[in-house]
């Protein structure tokens, strides 16, 4: 039988990962302008995200521009968008499923075995959501590092990891850990029923004496 405390812990971690994935997706600091050079102008800082780019002046003024054309966006931005949105959708479905399957809820209380299976399915969906977010953030980070170390990239066009990447990595880990708690907790529980053994024909019926 599943442990309600472990289920609640796993659900809490996965839910925090879900919130972190949303925050990472809407943040603009996916990559930030690099200052690794001698001729870098530090009067302004440039940031690029999945939905818009911003320029922060030394005076504190921030100007942002939303990406207007979808077809002009690089493939890395479109791909990361899709992975992060898929992760958020999977996490949302997992939350709805686990609300039904967790032991601390009253849904399907009369069928504990089916309830545990529903919670297990929600945990698997959380793990898939975490993997999608991890792939998206890591893919984007790999492209930033690849362009940074490319000798043909101009010095003033190099970027470094932004804070959104770290939020995304942390959110992906929390989501997978929470889903793992839900899966391990449900898969290790017994069904609560005694095993059924076949009844022997010799002992199943009383002996009869015939005259």
TrEMBL record:
Keywords: Cell junction, Cell membrane, Membrane, Tight junction, Transmembrane, Transmembrane helix. It is a multi-pass membrane protein. It comes from the Eukaryota. Claudins function as major constituents of the tight junction complexes that regulate the permeability of epithelia. GO terms for molecular function: structural molecule activity. The keyword Transmembrane applies. InterPro entries: Claudin (IPR006187), Claudin_CS (IPR017974), PMP22/EMP/MP20/Claudin (IPR004031). It comes from Champsocephalus gunnari. It is found in: Cell junction, Tight junction; Cell membrane. This is Claudin. Its main location: other. One of its GO terms (cellular component) is plasma membrane. Belongs to the claudin family. The chain crosses the membrane at residues 76-97, 118-141, 161-184.
């Amino acid at each position: 039988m599943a442990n309600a405390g472990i289920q609640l812990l796993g659900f809490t971690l996965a839910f925090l990962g879900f919130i972190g994935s949303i925050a990472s997706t809407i943040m603009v600091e996916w990559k930030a302008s690099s200052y690794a050079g001698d001729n870098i102008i530090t009067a302004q800082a440039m940031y690029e995200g999945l939905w818009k780019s911003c320029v922060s002046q030394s005076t504190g003024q921030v100007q942002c521009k939303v990406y207007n054309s979808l077809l002009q966006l690089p493939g890395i931005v479109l791909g990361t968008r899709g992975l992060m949105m898929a992760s958020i959708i999977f996490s949302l479905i997992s939350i709805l499923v686990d609300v039904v399957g967790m032991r601390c809820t009253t849904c399907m209380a009369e069928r504990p075995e089916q309830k545990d299976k529903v919670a297990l399915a929600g945990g698997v969906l959380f793990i898939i959501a975490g993997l999608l977010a991890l792939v998206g953030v890591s893919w984007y980070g790999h492209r930033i590092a690849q362009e940074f170390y490319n000798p043909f990239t101009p010095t003033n066009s190099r970027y470094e990891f932004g804070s959104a990447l770290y939020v995304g990595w942390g959110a992906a880990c929390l989501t997978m850990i929470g889903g793992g708690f839900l899966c391990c907790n449900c898969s290790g529980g017994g069904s609560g029923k005694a095993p059924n053994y076949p009844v022997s024909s010799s002992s199943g019926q009383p002996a009869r004496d015939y005259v």
